[in-house]
Amino acid sequence: MYQLKFDQKVCASCRSADCLLKCQYMTFTGHKEAHGEMMKIMKGKDSRVLSECMTCYACEEYCTRGNHPFYLISEKREEKGIFTAPRPITNQWINMTVMQGKCLVGNVKDKALSCCYIPDLGPLGTGEIFKDVADAGVFGAEFMCPAVHTHFARMSVIKERLPIVIENYRKLGVKEVICLHDECYGTLTSIAQAYGMEVPFQPVYYLDYVLQRMKELKDKIKPLNITVAYQRSCSNRLIPDKHALVKKIFTLIGVKAPKRTYQDENALCCAEILRSISGYKLADDVQKRNIDDMLAADAEYCVFNCPACQTSLAEKVAKRGLKPVHIIDLCKMAIGEKERGTL
Amino acid sequence: MSDILQSLIDIVGERSVSNAPEELWFYSRDPGVLAPHKPDYVVAPKTTEEVQKIVQLACREKVPVVPMGNGMSLAGLVIPLKGGIVLDMKRMNKILEVNPMARYVVVEGGTSQGALKSYLQKNHPTLRHSIPDAPATTTIAANVSLHGQGRLTNQYGFNSDMVTGLEVVLPTGEICRIGSPSIGPYWISKGPTMPDLSGLFLGWLGCTGIITKVGLKLYPNKKFRDAELFVTDRVDLIPDILYKLTHLEMLEDINVWFQPKPLMFLGNYHITIFFTGDTEEEIEFKRKMIWDCLQEHMDAKDGGFMSIQYMKAMLLEMPGRNIADFADVPKGGGFEYSGPIAPIEHFPQYAAKVVELAAKYNVLYASTARLISGGHSMMYSISFAFNRNDKAMMDRVEQALTEATAFALDMGGIPWKPNHKEQKMLLERMEPNARRLLLMIKKNLDPQGIMNPGNWEVNA
User: What domains are defined for chain B?
Assistant: First the structure.
């Protein structure tokens, strides 16, 4: 079985304890307490973090020393039989994502376009931007990154299934897998690396691909001249170095994203997982603060990177006057493939 | 041509009578597992007077008459077990009156659920009726005559409790009004404050007369409907969860269901909670009340609310289509259920029985319970899917259903819309004086024994 590579010395010698001190859902009195809680977790002792963590993934970004605090917390939770969300919800996700041989594989050659196990991704990966890879889509549990199970502290599921997913891609003979979901790219890079799993192909982050294509399509771009608020996804925390791509794309297509309280490292999650874990009170509070903040920035659109975030928030932002749109559709608007206001 | 055929033609015209084999084939069966039996004639009257003449003819000739709505009970309730005349009511489909202030509608005996729903949406959008999860072509009169349930059953009881008056043709041919329409123009009460004669017809499955008009209560149609879906893997908690939910006294409908396929549903029990409101604030208030009342189960990690954004439109459909989807899982599109009315505290035992029967008879199960009247009881569906082209599978389903009914009776439950075999099982257990009372009513109302014979056949 794969083991998490977690350097205890790095954590023990940490002078910031940012992984916990920056957490937006737990509060600590200072470095001493936060560091102390991490030490307890590392040593397999009980810690309030194990019952209070909301699984926003952000500590993976806050730790700048290459350790994996969130994966460790999840490992220890599972070891101790602690459930984050209610047990039946946890098991429902495990059952729902079982590989049953019902995957869809397009005309895959050296590249595959990963639609994970999310139907909404298929329509996004189309049009001029994806014209070279649109028919190379793969979809289904067999190609689903199992990272979602970190929300439920079921790392054993990831360790069991991710090698099979990687092997399924290998069998396709691909050299590159373009991941349309942050979670897939984060899984194939961050999680696979953390557990020492070899990935025999090149994972490509879709916003890298989109940025390159938009540069190639520069002549078709008509600046949108709109103001947006960007909803960062939890899984983007696994690949924080890719976050800058959003601004580059916005600049290229004439989109302004004014400074907000809850952006970048301080972004709030879409809160749907918070609803599952703790109920509506925290989730409603987070969503309200988030949308208030978007409106305070005079945003016209709420731009999503993740279909799950979009499902969670689209109706809520729309009710408050913001137009929900996925960043790919925003790019399609810029090159005239989609009309404004019809999304 | 027989005298009876000619007499029927004389009553309703040639186009509305048939004894053609291909027509009789269709009218000999329903979608359940019971064996078909052909009628001798099919007739589709247009008026109460035509119904009366047909019944008078049948009474005179001692020919069975089986009144039929859309024939979708699944329990073979309109299979003409002893042949005779199937009386297809679908041409009597007029919506006769809506009294919006008194919130009732009067419809003819063949009016479909879908027609009334559509009519109200167009003409009285603030009113609704209790729509069952049956195809839209099923009829209102048939539904109340078998004590059907619908979307408003948790709030207001069986759909037959919502009847505000009846017009029936008795087995001897008299036309009779029941309830307030028997003494005045208003269809506001099926019985009270008089002796409630509607009980002579509701639940009798057409064995005591033919319903030609129904008065039905209508209810406020709120601007918003919404749903939540609570999931638990502890069957023993279900009665407590239902008790807490019904204590809120604000829910439109509550369904409890479990099934092994698709895999995401395996191992869990799902409680779909429907609620309505005229403002978003009302909806949000009710949503919070629902979540709050089950918070302790969330805190214990025993249950939680599913995110249902992607399936909400399907959940809110009226009627729901998911039952039909289930029927086609083993391919061949068949399903049938035993639906005992039972106390909610027995849910765990019923749930265990469903799984036991499915394993014993090697059939696919699904189970959906609907709460009745705020939790005084529930309709517990023990449902099995089958391939209509697989006789052996259909036989196994029939055996499983019979065993399910026996189990329900042992548990003190009452089979809902029992087929003729289940009716016998029920009557055998009935207290003798009650059985004699049924016999007395049946013999007096239907002295020739012509009405839907084979059903509710009471022996002294």
Answer: 3-88 (3.30.43.10), 95-220 (3.30.465.10), 224-410 (3.40.462.10)
Residue count (chain B): 460
> What pLDDT band is residue B458 in, cutting at 50, 70 and 90?
confident
Q: State the burial class of residue A219 (Cβ atoms within 10 Å of its Cβ: 0-12, 13-18, 19+).
A: exposed
CA distance to partner chain A, nearest, from residue B235 (Å): 11
Distance in angstroms between the alpha carbons of the first and the last residue of chain B: 39
End position of a domain, from candidates A55, A79, A103: A79
Q: Are residues A114 and A188 in the same domain?
A: yes
Q: What is the pLDDT of residue B417?
A: 93
Q: Do B307 and A272 touch (CB under 8 A)?
A: yes
Residues A242 and A149 in one domain: no
Cα A163 to Cα A145: distance, rounded to the nearest angstrom: 10
Asked whether B338 and B369 are in contact (CB, 8 A), the reply is no
- Containing domain of residue A258, as a range? 217-334
User: Does position A343 have pLDDT exceeding 50, yes or no?
Assistant: no
Which CATH number does the domain housing residue A226 bear? 3.40.50.1860
CB contact under 8 Å between A85 and B306, yes or no, is no
Q: In the numeric block, which tokens belong to residue B191?
A: 């019985």
Q: Tokens 């983007």 appear where?
A: A236
User: Is the ipTM beyond the 0.85 threshold?
Assistant: yes
Pairing of strands B364-372, A323-326: unpaired
Answer yes or no: do A320 and A286 share one domain: yes
Q: What one-character-per-residue DSSP string does A2-30 give? A: ------HHHHHT-S--HHHHT-SS---SS
A95 and B264 in contact by Cβ < 8 A? Answer: yes
Token pair in block for residue B126: 């603030």
In a domain? residue A173: yes
**DSSP label of B414:** B
Closest chain A C-alpha to B310 CA, distance in angstroms: 8
SS3 B364: strand
Residue-wise pLDDT for B206-218, tens only, equals 999 999 999 999 9
Whether residues A232 and A137 share a domain: the answer is no
- Nearest chain B alpha carbon to A95: B264
pTM of structure: 0.94
Which pair of structure tokens corresponds to residue B53? 């003449």
Q: Tell whether B297 is within 8 A of chain A (Cβ).
A: yes
- The amino acid at A263: Q
Residue A234 lies in a domain: yes
Q: Are residues A118 and A202 in the same domain?
A: yes
Q: Is residue A318 part of a domain?
A: yes
Amino acid at A21: L
Q: B308 CB near a chain A CB, below 8 Å?
A: no
A265, A163: one domain? no
Give the pLDDT confidence of A248-258 residue by residue, as tens digits.
999 999 999 99
Q: Domain tally for chain A?
A: 3
Name A51's Cβ contacts closer than 8 Å, sequence gap at least 6.
A82
- Structural domain includes residue A342: no
| CB-count burial class (<10 Å; 0-12, 13-18, 19+) for B336 | buried
